[in-house]
Amino acid sequence: MGKIKTRSPTRINSLTVIFYTLHYWFTGLINYISKPTIFADDTNIIFTHSNLTDFKDQIDIVVEKISSWFQTDSLILNFNKTHYIHFMAKSKLVGIAHISYKDNPINITSCTNFLGLTLDTTLSRKTHIDQLSLKLNTACYITRSLKSVISTRNLRRIYFFMCIPS
After folding, report:
1. Distance (Å, rounded) from C-alpha 57 to C-alpha 126?
2. Mind giving me the DSSP string for 46-112?
3. CB 155 within 8 A of CB 146
4. 158 or 32, which is more confident?
5. Helix, strand, coil share (%) of the chain residues, nearest 5
């Protein structure tokens, strides 16, 4: 009979536990009227509503809850980095009311980065493709320019550094 091997339990980083605890608490705080997504240091909160007034009221409720949650830990919501995007069909391009919280405007943007994908107001992929094309064109130009100067191995490193997302 073979010897039974035992494994010790995996140690969990205390910072990881704190992050998951805060993530669970934060999403539970506003989950009943929105769909929060936290990825690395980026937080997205998705709202859906057919009535513009109710939509704005929901945003006010969530921003109020987030702000009061931050204030308990002596943090503030950075309104310079806070923005919103209004997704809509191409045939129904409509303006949205001005959104602010305690005289701090929340700026509208025409495109946003969500989990590595650049989205615009009509959910077309044009902006994402344009950004990706620019990045690949730059990488090709640099590799072509350096081809006669450095080794193929280093060219490959430069290509992967510039083209592969980190």
Report:
1. 32
2. E---SSHHHHHHHHHHHHHHHHHHHHHTT----TTS-EE-----GGG-------EETTEE-EE-SEE
3. yes
4. 158
5. 45, 15, 40
Per residue in 21-38, pLDDT (tens digit) is 555 556 566 666 677 776
Residues 117-129 pLDDT 10s: 888 888 888 999 9
Cα(94)–Cα(106) distance, rounded to whole angstroms? 18
- How far apart are alpha carbons 112 and 119 in whole angstroms? 5
Quick one: which of 96, 112, 113 has its CA closest to 56?
96
For the chain, give every domain's residue range: 14-113, 125-166
